[in-house]
Amino acid sequence: MAPRINPSILSADFARLADEARAVQGADWLHVDVMDNHFVPNLTLGVPIVESLARATDTPLDCHLMIEDADRWAPQYVEAGAGSVTFHAEAAAAPVRLAREVRAKGARAGMALKPATPIEPYEDLLPELDMVLVMTVEPGFGGQAFLDIMLPKIRRTRQLIGKHGLDVWLQVDGGVSEETIERCAEAGADVFVAGSAVYGASDPAAAVRALRERAQR
Ligand code: DX5
Ligand code: ZN
């Protein structure tokens, strides 16, 4: 599958979100990191800002919920206009029911795994999901170093998706850069989130093109 490049607005200027969304023309999705200062030690944005962003850009929104009580909140992000909603396995009490609810409301359903959470217990849930997100840093902050120790988990996840013959996207998030993206692609990832590597660049749209080119090698 052609790689998808999803810039993370966590590294954008939050006072200029609409402009920053438009600065990454050519991106496949806009990755929106929602943090509640409980699931992770950082606080970002919530439903009203997602609603406004959805109106401000044609790029579909890929919401990554780093929040507790995902069962309660995830459906509200679909209603806010997100095209994809990813909840953390560690934060969902009933992930099957939640994924079905997200899909029934019209969005793609993703499930994220923190670095210490294995994929194997979730093998039987894969048919219920549109995407698995393998975190390649501890969630909470942009600009952290890529964890190479996650490459085996990316490989195992790709194998499990293939074993069941599923069309489940495999996203990586954290420390993805021109230097690390090829390793992720080689391990089987096909959706790449990049925050600082895109918004830290002088030309964010060019950074997206450069990442795409490297992921295709
Ligand atoms: C971290 C977030 C990431 C973050 C990635 O918890 O989930 O989406 O924005 O930022 P970089 O690409 O700078 O590691
Ligand atoms: Zn994220």
TrEMBL record:
<dbReference type="GO" id="GO:0005737">
    <property type="term" value="C:cytoplasm"/>
</dbReference>
<feature type="binding site">
    <location>
        <position position="8"/>
    </location>
    <ligand>
        <name>substrate</name>
    </ligand>
</feature>
<protein>
    <recommendedName>
        <fullName>Ribulose-phosphate 3-epimerase</fullName>
        <ecNumber>5.1.3.1</ecNumber>
    </recommendedName>
</protein>
<dbReference type="GO" id="GO:0046872">
    <property type="term" value="F:metal ion binding"/>
</dbReference>
<dbReference type="GO" id="GO:0004750">
    <property type="term" value="F:D-ribulose-phosphate 3-epimerase activity"/>
</dbReference>
<keyword id="KW-0464">Manganese</keyword>
<feature type="binding site">
    <location>
        <position position="64"/>
    </location>
    <ligand>
        <name>a divalent metal cation</name>
    </ligand>
</feature>
<feature type="binding site">
    <location>
        <position position="33"/>
    </location>
    <ligand>
        <name>a divalent metal cation</name>
    </ligand>
</feature>
<comment type="similarity">
    <text>Belongs to the ribulose-phosphate 3-epimerase family.</text>
</comment>
<feature type="binding site">
    <location>
        <position position="173"/>
    </location>
    <ligand>
        <name>a divalent metal cation</name>
    </ligand>
</feature>
<dbReference type="InterPro" id="IPR000056">
    <property type="entry name" value="Ribul_P_3_epim-like"/>
</dbReference>
<keyword id="KW-0119">Carbohydrate metabolism</keyword>
<dbReference type="InterPro" id="IPR026019">
    <property type="entry name" value="Ribul_P_3_epim"/>
</dbReference>
<comment type="function">
    <text>Catalyzes the reversible epimerization of D-ribulose 5-phosphate to D-xylulose 5-phosphate.</text>
</comment>
<dbReference type="Pfam" id="PF00834">
    <property type="entry name" value="Ribul_P_3_epim"/>
</dbReference>
<feature type="binding site">
    <location>
        <position position="64"/>
    </location>
    <ligand>
        <name>substrate</name>
    </ligand>
</feature>
<feature type="binding site">
    <location>
        <begin position="140"/>
        <end position="143"/>
    </location>
    <ligand>
        <name>substrate</name>
    </ligand>
</feature>
<dbReference type="GO" id="GO:0006098">
    <property type="term" value="P:pentose-phosphate shunt"/>
</dbReference>
<dbReference type="InterPro" id="IPR013785">
    <property type="entry name" value="Aldolase_TIM"/>
</dbReference>
<dbReference type="GO" id="GO:0019323">
    <property type="term" value="P:pentose catabolic process"/>
</dbReference>
<keyword id="KW-0862">Zinc</keyword>
<comment type="pathway">
    <text>Carbohydrate degradation.</text>
</comment>
<feature type="active site" description="Proton donor">
    <location>
        <position position="173"/>
    </location>
</feature>
<feature type="binding site">
    <location>
        <begin position="195"/>
        <end position="196"/>
    </location>
    <ligand>
        <name>substrate</name>
    </ligand>
</feature>
<keyword id="KW-0170">Cobalt</keyword>
<feature type="binding site">
    <location>
        <position position="175"/>
    </location>
    <ligand>
        <name>substrate</name>
    </ligand>
</feature>
<feature type="active site" description="Proton acceptor">
    <location>
        <position position="33"/>
    </location>
</feature>
<feature type="binding site">
    <location>
        <position position="31"/>
    </location>
    <ligand>
        <name>a divalent metal cation</name>
    </ligand>
</feature>
<feature type="binding site">
    <location>
        <begin position="173"/>
        <end position="175"/>
    </location>
    <ligand>
        <name>substrate</name>
    </ligand>
</feature>
<dbReference type="InterPro" id="IPR011060">
    <property type="entry name" value="RibuloseP-bd_barrel"/>
</dbReference>
<keyword id="KW-0479">Metal-binding</keyword>
<keyword id="KW-0413">Isomerase</keyword>
